[in-house]
Amino acid sequence: RRFLHGHKITATLNQAFDSVLQHCADREETWINPTLHANYTALNEMGCCHSLEVWDDGALLGGVFGIAIGGVFCGESMFSRRTNGSKAALAFLTTHLRNCGFALFDTQFITDHLQTLGALEISRAQYRSRLAEALALPATITAQPLPDVHNVLQRRTQTS
Fold first, then answer.
1. In the list 63, 78, 110, 135, which could disulfide-bond 20, CB 3.0-4.6 Å?
2. Are 99 and 148 in contact (CB under 8 A)?
3. Which residues have CB under 8 Å from 143's CB, separation 6+?
4. Which of 91, 73, 90, 78 minimizes the C-alpha distance to 19?
5. For the sheet containing 9-13, what is the strand order?
6. Would you list the DSSP string of 122-148?
7. Which pTM does this prediction carry?
């Protein structure tokens, strides 16, 4: 919250897909090899793979990419060029996915970092049930405009 309040953070969808992919692969050890890079790019061109980029006053701060099928978003990787870049990307993405009717964000595995952002590990049976329901949803990642910082922060402070 403090970070988002203190910066001019904006988000875009698929505006820097290749840059996000490159930054996600730019690690000492990476699983994103040239073949996977080409495959993700082809899926992006088909409208199945998407990136969300966050910018701080025009500079790329961080991003995340993944595959969308029905109401399921499978996060593949994320990166941060500065502290809190990937956290900001996930905050925007989770708000946007909810606004667009997505019901499941699959992070593939749980990490301490993801847990601090609200990720929960569920049983295989729960996952399969939620996956089946979410796959049947007519969600589209472009159904709504991306939220602004105010809407991201408001969603995170509301209680029910």
1. 63
2. no
3. 99, 100, 101
4. 78
5. 9-13, 49-56, 59-69, 72-80, 104-106
6. --HHHHHHHHHHHHTS---TTSSPPP-
7. 0.89
Amino acid at 60: L
Which H helix or E strand runs over 154?
Answer: helix 149-157
User: Hey, what amino acid is at 96?
Assistant: H
Structure confidence by residue, pLDDT tens digits, 84-141: 889 899 999 999 999 999 999 999 888 887 777 778 889 999 999 999 999 999 999 9
Q: What is the DSSP letter of 24?
A: H
What does the alpha-carbon distance between residue 43 and residue 41 come to, in Å, rounded to a whole number?
5
Give the DSSP H or E segment for 73: strand 72-80
